[in-house]
Structures are given as C-alpha cells and as structure tokens.
Amino acid sequence: MKKRSVFFFIPALLIYTILLIIPIFGAFYLSTTNWNGISATYSFVGLKNYISMLSDARLGNAIMVTFKITGIVCITVNVLGLFLAICLNKSGKMIAAVRSIFFMPYVLSTVAISFIWLSILSYTGVLNGVLEAVGLGSLTADYIGNTKNAILSICVVEIWRTLGFYIVIYLASIQTVPVELYESCKIDGGNSWQQFRYVTIPMIIPGITIAAIMSIMTEMRQYDIVRVLTNGGPGYSTETITYNIVTQAFGNNMLGYSSAVAVFLFVIIAAVAIIQLKIANRLEA
Amino acid sequence: MSKIENRSGKVIRGGITIFVLIITLLMTIPLYITVVNIFKPTDLISASPLTLPSPPILDNIKTVLSDPNVSLSKMYFNSICITFFGTSICILVSSMAGYYLARTTSKFSKKLYVYFLFGLMVPYVIVYVPLISMYKNFGIIGNLPGLIIVFVSGSISFSVFMYQGFIKSIPIEVEEAALIDGANQFTIYFNIVLPLVKSCTTSVAIFIGLSMWNDFLTPLLIGQVPTITVGIYTAIGSFSADWGTVFAYVLFATAPIVIVYILAQKQFVKGLTAGAIKG
Fold first, then answer.
1. In CA terms, which of A76, A145, A265, B209 is 20 to 30 Å from B42?
2. Inter-chain contact B254–A20, Cβ cutoff 8 Å?
3. Distance from CA of A146 to the nearest CA of B (A)
C-alpha cells in the first residue's frame, strides 16, 4: 500500500498549532510576567503570580463557587437524568414530544436562555409577579441580588439547559442493556427495583462515568450564565474561575496574573480528562 | 401478599408519573413564557406572565427592528459567515487529517493523533490573552476571516477525533480497488472516502456549527465582531428590565436554531451526543 501524503494533515496541523498550541505556551510564559497589556515592557517575575494566588480571597471565592455549582449541577443532572431516562425509555408520540422539549434548551445559545431566566428570576420579574398575583406575596424574594440565592439560580438555569442532554446519554446507555438480562432477573423473582439495581446500574456504569465526567468538565468552565444573570455580583461573590480570569484580564488589565489562574484551571481540567481516559481504557479492557 | 405489592406498585407508578409530569411542566414553562410574552406590553408581563396575549401586539418586535443602534442583518451576516465557513473549513481539514491518521499505522501517526486530541482537555479561556496580543500585533482584531480561523482551530480536536474513529471502521478494500486503477490519493479521498463518511460529517457539522453559532466569549473578545449572540447581549444592556423587548431579542437570537432543530431533530440529538456516546 502506498503511503498517504503528508498534505492530508498539514493544513489541520498548522491551524491547530499556530492558533491553539502556541497560545497555550504563550499563557504559560505570560503567567511568569507582570504584563498589564498596555505598557510595551514587562518583567519576568518567576512564580510570584502563583504565590499571590494563594492569598487571593477573591480567587478563593471563585474556586468555591465553581465547586459548588459543579457539585449541585452534576449530582442533579445525573440523578434526575438517569431517573427520567428510565421513565422515558418507551416508544410513543407523547414520550417523543417530551424528549424533544427536554432537549430543546441544549441547542439554544446560553446567553439567550440566561436572558429568559433573568426575566423570570429578576426582582421585578415573572416569578415574583406570579407569587404576588396568586396572593403569595410574602414568598417573593430576590433570586439574583443575594449571593446564596444567586448561586442556586445559576444552578437552576444550568440544570434546565443541560438536563435533556444527559437524559439522551442515559437513554442510549440503557438501550445497550440486553433484554435477556432483565428476563432472567424476572425469572429469579426480581422486582422492578431489583432489576434496576442489579441489572441496569452495573450495565450502564460506563455511561454514568462518561456523563458524570462530562458534566464536571462543563461546569468547571461555567461563564455565560454568570455573565448574564449576576455579572459576578453582588460584589464578586458569584464569580466562577473562568469569570475571574476574564475580568482580571480584560477588566483589570492583570494579564500576567490572570494567565497564572488560567494555567491553574488548565491543570485541574487536564487532570479530570486524564482520569476520564484512564477509566475509559479500563472499561474497554 | 402479591395483592399488597400490586397496590403499592400502582401507588409508586402513579407517583412517578406525576413527578415526571411536574418536571416536564417546569421544563416547558420558561419556553412558554418566552413565546407568549413576546406579544405583550412589558407592564402586562409582570402582572400576568402566564396568560395568552390578548390582543397580541407586535410592539416589542418593532422596537427591536427599529433600534438604530442594532443592525440585525449585520449580526445575522456575521453569525452565518462564521458558522458556514468555520464549519466547512474545519470539516475539510479535520476529515483529511482524520483520514491520514486512520489509514497510517506508523508511530508518528499515533503521536500525531494524541497531539490533536490534546486540545480536548484545554479550557479555552487560557488562549484568549496570548491570542489577542498575537492578533493585535498582526492588526487583525475585528477581522471576520481572522475570527473564523480561530473558531476552526478550536474545533479541530473534536472533529479529528470523530473522523479518525469513523474512517477506521470503513473497510480499506474500497479504496484499494481505486488505487490499483491508478487513481490519485486526493481523488480517492474526495470521491470515495468523503461520501462514505456523510453521517459522521452531519454529526460533526451540527456539533461544531452549533457551538460556533452560539459562542459568546470568542467573538466578544477576539473578533469584537457583533454576532447575533454578542449583539443581543450588547443590545439588551440598554433595555435591562424591559422584558418585552428582551423576549423579542431572545426570539431573534434563537429562532433560526429552533427552526433547524424542529426540522432535523434526530440529527441534532445524534450529532450533539455523538462525542459522548462514542467515547
């Protein structure tokens, strides 16, 4: 067999290397400088940016917020996603319609759906309006203006946006389980719960792993919803790591420092990705 | 015994059905609110957000269309250019690379594959600062082709991953017959391989096309180009609590996608989950 020409991969290799790989190295380099993006000169500061990260309360808060959002969203979409997948694992026009409604938010732009939710959750918005109208005015609250509610609001929007996606992943996973296994479980006297616990769950462990890791990787990068819903506020209390990086870089001209934070985020996400690869390899073996 | 179990089974099943209905309702309400409130004046929206508009008014849509600071046609033009050219270029270069990687078994080819996959684990926010200073040096900030090629670079990893796997599953004999006939490698690729991987191309096109259409930060920071997503974000700023107008903007940002989604729902679901289900 004749060898394939190198011209097959050269265009992709060039675009990918120049616009993605070289900038990543650039970020590692900038993270050791004090560049502010405006002055032409900057100096090498070694690991100083990384050391200042340790005592940066604002960054610490952003990390906590990111972990909180990741935890809440991951657990909810995976548990609810699996449960609903089992309920929707039937054919029929109704079920098909329900599935397509669940999936719809996932194809829309996050910025646009965040505006929909802003109109619902805002103090002068739809939800408080409905509560007033039905005589539950005492239950009205500020879902965006106070930190605790705001983080939950961000989670609600993200759960609403991604739930349909995880339902589809779990549906695909459930449909790979051979019907014979359920039948033999039934013959052994297993009820619905036992079929779920001893047949479905062990068979879909690969699906659960992929869905869980995907949701972690997505939520660790959360930005758009925060930008529209709270703008990081009140103060900077609902900033995520990505939000922190973008604001410090382009709002406060701390380009060297924000690059160090970006490198930190890169290390976390790469670690999650490597764990994913390890698990995937073990599952295939 | 079995009677009791049947009964409790019925109660549980009924409970589950009600729970699913409630969740479905909660999922649907935000979409419903958007659709009905586009046609209502803002003061009615907070007062009775769930009622049907009577009579429906087009004022919100007119406000958006007549705003002198908002050029919807320019935004659509930018978004369509980015999505169309970005997706086409990315599919062309990645499918070629995926073909090479699937059909070459050398050590170099394996290493190259890993090198391409590396991009999947990168949080994209890390590249903005270096990329912007690079673009500033070249003076191509705000340049549409410059932005398109950035989008291509960000989608190559995923596309190469998809094509490599898909082409590997196609028997090589199909190509060999053509090779014996003396056909050129690139002719074989374009005439034989590419038509065979159509379903992969559909999935990849939907996945990366949608991410390009919906992306917010990249056009905002690197291109400073008003796409439809960036455009409505900037435009709504001045209407912040005028919900009627906000809903009208949301309509303009999402309508094209909703229409395509309704027409090609199966392909959308397949394309967007293909990466996860395959991995």
1. A145
2. no
3. 18
Distance of alpha carbon A122 from alpha carbon A128, whole angstroms:
8
Residues B131 and B247 in one domain: yes
Contacts of B20 in chain A (CB under 8 A): 84, 87-88, 98
Q: For the segment A34-65, what is each residue's pLDDT rounded down to a tens digit?
A: 888 777 778 888 888 898 888 889 999 999 99
Q: How many domains does chain B have?
A: 2
Flag if A211 and B45 touch (Cβ within 8 Å): no
Contact (CB<8Å) B33/A101: no
Complex confidence, ipTM: 0.89
Give the tokens for residue A237: 């209390």
Domain that holds residue B158: 66-278
pTM of the model: 0.90
Same domain, B213 and B239: yes
Nearest CA in chain A to B16: A87
Q: What is the pLDDT of residue B239?
A: 66
Average pLDDT over every residue of A238-249: 93
- Minimum CA–CA partner of A176 in chain B: B277
d(CA A248, CA A31): 13
Please report which residue ranges of A136-254 form alpha helices under DSSP H: 147-174, 179-187, 192-195, 201-203, 205-220, 224-229, 241-246
Structure tokens at B165: 């796997």
Sequence ranges of the domains in chain A: 68-232
The answer to whether residues B168 and B50 belong to one domain is no
Q: Does domain A68-232 have CATH number 1.20.1250.20?
A: no
